[in-house]
Structures are given as structure tokens and as C-alpha cells.
């Protein structure tokens, strides 16, 4: 089980790194005016989402589910885990909204400013802080 946990943590770190970086690319993409920069950001966003974010999301989710099912008798009474899983569901929604935004930028249909994306970039940080506190402190 420790190997599963180790690879779960590694994949979560990779997934979160991508979740932090993709909205930052959106900030720069939304500020770009020249065609070469815009096209470069489209490639970077697509490769980050499909090549790093999606595989690490799938692996993190599969390993997390595996650990949860394996120890459900214990985890079913741990309310901190229930809150953590709710936060993970919100993070998954954020992940797929990022994928939607990759498509919006690809079609040159972005309507949000760089300021929107700067705030949008902070959402996963709030989830990360909350999840780490829940897992380490286990307040309830």
C-alpha cells in the first residue's frame, strides 16, 4: 500500500503543477497580440493539458480510489476524508473547465481578461492548502 501511496502523491504533485501552470499560460495567452505568440500558446496549452495534466489526473484518481476502496472500513468513518473528497471533486471540475478553456483559446474565442485568469489561477492553491491540512491535521 505504501507504493500506491507514494505514486499517488507523485501523480498529485504532477497534476497540481500542471493545474498551477495552465492558467498562468492563459494569463499570458490572453495578453498576447501577435500571431506567433498566440499560436505558440495554443500548442503549449494543448500539450500541457493532454500530455501532462490528463495522464497525471487519471493516475492520481485511480490510485486514490484504489487506496480508498482498499481501506474503506477505516475511511468510511473519517469525516476529514469525506471533506477532502468533496474538495477533490471541485478540483476535478476545475481541471475539466481548464480543458474547456484550452478549446476556447484554440478557437480564438476567449472573452476573459488576464485579470480573470490571474484569479482563476488561485483556486487550486486554496484547494491544495485545505486538502493538506485535512490530511495532516485530520481535524475531525
Offer a quick outline of the entry.
The chain has 140 residues and is mostly helical. It has one domain (2-137).
- Element string (H = helix, E = strand): HHHHHH
Largest sheet: none
Number of strands: 0
- Identify low-pLDDT runs: none
Helix content: over 70%
Indicate the mean pLDDT.
Answer: 97
Query: Number of helix segments?
Result: 6
Compute the CA-based radius of gyration: 17 Å
Terminal residue distance: 24 Å
What's the number of structural domains?
1
Structural class: mainly alpha
Shape: elongated
What does this molecule look like?
- By secondary structure, the chain is mainly α.
- The protein has one domain.
- Helices cover 86% and strands 0% of the residues.
- The protein is built from six helices and no strands.
- It has helices spanning 2-31, 35-70, 72-75, 79-106, 114-120, 123-137.
- Helix 1 runs antiparallel to helix 2.
- The chain is elongated and about 55 Å long.
- The two termini are 24 Å apart.
- The model has no long low-confidence stretch (mean pLDDT 97).
What is this structure's SSE topology?
Elements (H helix, E strand, L loop, with lengths): L1 H30 L3 H36 L1 H4 L3 H28 L7 H7 L2 H15 L3
Helix pairs in contact: 1-2, 1-4, 1-5, 2-4, 4-6
Amino acid at each position: 500500500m505504501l507504493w500506491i501511496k507514494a505514486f499517488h502523491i507523485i501523480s498529485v504533485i504532477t497534476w497540481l503543477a500542471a493545474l498551477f501552470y495552465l492558467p498562468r499560460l492563459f494569463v499570458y495567452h490572453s495578453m498576447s497580440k501577435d500571431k506567433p505568440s498566440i499560436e505558440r500558446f495554443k500548442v503549449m496549452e494543448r500539450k500541457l493539458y493532454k500530455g501532462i495534466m490528463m495522464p497525471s489526473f487519471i493516475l492520481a484518481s485511480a490510485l486514490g480510489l484504489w487506496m480508498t476502496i482498499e481501506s474503506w472500513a477505516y475511511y468510511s468513518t473519517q469525516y476529514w476524508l469525506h471533506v477532502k473528497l468533496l474538495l477533490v471533486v471541485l478540483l476535478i471540475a476545475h481541471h475539466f473547465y481548464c480543458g474547456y478553456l484550452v478549446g476556447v483559446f484554440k478557437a480564438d474565442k476567449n472573452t476573459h481578461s488576464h485579470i480573470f485568469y490571474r484569479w482563476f489561477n488561485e483556486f487550486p492553491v486554496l484547494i491544495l492548502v485545505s486538502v493538506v491540512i485535512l490530511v495532516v491535521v485530520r481535524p475531525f
